[in-house]
Amino acid sequence: MEDTESTPTKAVMALKKVLEAEDVVAIIGPTLTGTAMAMRGFIEQEQIPAFMHSGGDVILLAPLKKDDPTSLPKWTFKSPYKAADAMGKICQYMSKHGIKKIGFLYSNEGFGKDGLRNVRVQAPKYGVEVVAEEAFQPKDVDMTAQLTHINAKGVDAIIAWTVGPAMGIIPKNVKQLGIKAPLFECHGAGDPVFWKVAGEAGEGVMMPSTKIVVADQLPDSDIQKKKIQAYVKAYQDRFNREPGTMVAYGADAAFILVDAIKKVGPDRAKIRDTIENTRGYVGISGIYNISPKDHNGLSMSDIVMIKATKGGWELLD
Q1: Residue 4 pLDDT exceeds 90
Q2: Contact status, residue 189 vs residue 221, Cβ threshold 8 Å
Q3: What residue spans of the chain are helical by DSSP H?
Q4: What is the mean pLDDT of the chain?
Q5: Is the pLDDT of residue 188 over 90?
Q6: C-beta of residue 198 within 8 angstroms of C-beta of residue 172
Q7: Contact 109, 34 (CB under 8 A)
Q8: Does the residue 68 lie in any domain?
Q9: What is the pTM of this model?
Q10: How many domains does the chain have?
């Protein structure tokens, strides 16, 4: 186990250290899109299956060689549903509730830029217009200038695409500025850490999410409900805290990978092939149907919209 320290260079160094120290047959992680992108080339070179928790679609869609669009990763998988589907879910919800003009605020790094590409594609599909785009640096601690520019455009809502401390800074800035437009965040925000960083300013923020944080609110007909409830209880018993959506991503990556190892043993190529042929797997994050053309396997139907309320979460229609 090694810490990437959220730094691309250190992520590659950590990966090399792990592979040199042990006879590793597979990798779980990393979490951030930037570190994942830095690791991809080495993972493909070493031919080791890696199940990542990174939110950005670019880790699966960007060619490994700039001059060869067909050079897509063969050994890399990701457990969070596609960022494009998460964005689509938000825009679908906005369309349903009469939100027409939006501002987009994003972190100026891999995940944020991936979000910008996705909102430009997804918003028009649902009759939503992006009238303002503003970026901030990952370590910025105040986004009032960007939010002021967005609010001046008379937006009906704001989407903030980031993870980490900024998830909490932005709601606080919104509240400080008295902005009335509802705030939406990304699919990494449905987690207890959101409340830790946002505090009471998090009240009312909406986001796409896995079902793990609203399991008890799901209808009994939901095929995932019992499995999620059982997992949540086991997690609470083991760690004495609530699991969030990031936990769901990690759990699914681990479950699918371990199942593959149980089936075929410690053979990297066979593990890769087994993961790639995962069909109908009822996970915590959704129903996985992984294939050679889709190393994620989830769809927009696996995503729910939730609202942060009273330190918890409300399932939205």
Answers
A1: yes
A2: no
A3: 8-21, 33-46, 58-61, 83-96, 110-125, 144-151, 166-177, 192-198, 225-239, 245-264, 268-276
A4: 95
A5: no
A6: yes
A7: yes
A8: yes
A9: 0.88
A10: 2
